[in-house]
Amino acid sequence: MNLLLLRSDDFLDPQHVRLCGQRLDHINEILGSQANDALRVGLINGLCGTARLLSINSTEATLHVTLDTPPPAPLPLTVVLALPRPKMLRRILKNTAEFGIKQLHLINSYKVEKSYWQTPALKPETCKAYFEEGLIQAKDTVMPELHLHKRFKPFVEDHLPTIIDGQQAFVAHPYNAEPMPSPSTEKRVIVIGPEGGFTDYEIDLLQQQGVKTISMGQRIYRVENALTRLTCQLSATPHG
Amino acid sequence: MNLLLLRSDDFLDPQHVRLCGQRLDHINEILGSQANDALRVGLINGLCGTARLLSINSTEATLHVTLDTPPPAPLPLTVVLALPRPKMLRRILKNTAEFGIKQLHLINSYKVEKSYWQTPALKPETCKAYFEEGLIQAKDTVMPELHLHKRFKPFVEDHLPTIIDGQQAFVAHPYNAEPMPSPSTEKRVIVIGPEGGFTDYEIDLLQQQGVKTISMGQRIYRVENALTRLTCQLSATPHG
């Protein structure tokens, strides 16, 4: 655990926190921490800092908390992704938070299997748990926002223009594509298709909204690897 | 299946191939191909091309094969990686082949659990199967080479100098690190530590061999994501 994530209702007063349940078990069983030990903490959607363990037993721990450091810079990239199969979705939700992506739009596409929309991984509380895992890994506190769009054409025509809002927008597509642009600290939008790619019709609709096709090279990557690669290739954060 | 991988012993003569078993089942059940259909093929460690199905039934298929295209360019990056836990190792083996890494050295480190070296995923035939999955995904034919080094110090002192051989070599490490260099088409070596990182002693030994510490930024990435990010950030292939 690289960061102990705190919620506002954990606080007894602005500097003291009481923990029980899963996080307490982790501190006891995995970290093996004892009174006076220091832990790296962060408040969900708030600052990071340190905590000193005042007391700990098998039912609760109390901590003295100092929150004084901003979380890592967000990735200036909005991701629009054709809903992947559930197993891959789970890893992608974790990665979204781990990479600092703060806006994730999961969309339908011709090659997305209808059953994927029924996965329990899309339940808000399950998504949140995956996002928390990614935040803890990356020592981040800022929850990504997840948006679901079950119809492709209305999404592209009615929502995408508002999302793009003057930013550069790209779709990874092997045909008639421009070379990969350089990483930028400017806000950008990346659209990533399903396994098998978008149909020509879908690419046309995206292009009508000003989305530019870019090539990832000769190799075809699995969707989660495409996402990881594109976050590096398109976006730079001020502090790396 | 983006590519049907052929082995030299599949060939009846230089232009004809007979398939049975798993690959035949895939053609029948997943692709649903019929006589006269075209398939994208590649010969392991050889050229890519196309094949026309001459005949197919439930026990065998015969194909007319034309091999005329080189596989995608390899990634000019040798990867030295502290052996990850087995579940992650399996994905990393696939990714190694998918990304075009051709030299993978798995090494020991203080924070590598001894039991990891016993995983069935390290059996040569199992590794080969994961590599094949990655090659098929990326439409590549060139098998990565896997090297196992169960002792850290002898690896760093006796093998690493030969691997580096005048190339730039980096280790991802958050402390006293230089900023990430730009991607290059030059051959490079990247060393990636275990979860929890290398010890100071290990970093010292690496630095004595000319390995430079570079920072991945404020976030801490899971090992498989660190590998994917570093392949993008350090290496460029001539055709993207």
UniProtKB/TrEMBL annotation, chains A, B:
- In the Enzyme Commission scheme, what number(s) does this protein have? 2.1.1.193
What organism is recorded for this protein?
BD1-7 clade bacterium
CC per GO annotation = cytoplasm
Q: Which CDD domains is this protein grouped with?
A: RsmE-like
One Gene Ontology biological process: rRNA base methylation
Top EC category: transferase
- Swiss-Prot/TrEMBL catalytic activity: uridine(1498) in 16S rRNA + S-adenosyl-L-methionine = N(3)-methyluridine(1498) in 16S rRNA + S-adenosyl-L-homocysteine + H(+)
Q: Which SUPFAM superfamilies match?
A: alpha/beta knot
Q: Looking at the keywords, is Transferase present?
A: yes
Q: Which NCBIfam families does the UniProt record give?
A: PRK11713.5-4, RsmE family RNA methyltransferase
Give a yes or no for keyword Heme in this entry.
Answer: no
The family assignment reads:
Belongs to the RNA methyltransferase RsmE family.
- Tell me the ranges covered by the Ribosomal RNA small subunit methyltransferase E methyltransferase domain, including all copies: 72-228
What GO molecular functions are on record for this protein? rRNA (uridine-N3-)-methyltransferase activity
Record protein name field: Ribosomal RNA small subunit methyltransferase E
**What is the role of this chain?**
Specifically methylates the N3 position of the uracil ring of uridine 1498 (m3U1498) in 16S rRNA. Acts on the fully assembled 30S ribosomal subunit.
Entry keywords, A to Z: Cytoplasm, Methyltransferase, rRNA processing, S-adenosyl-L-methionine, Transferase
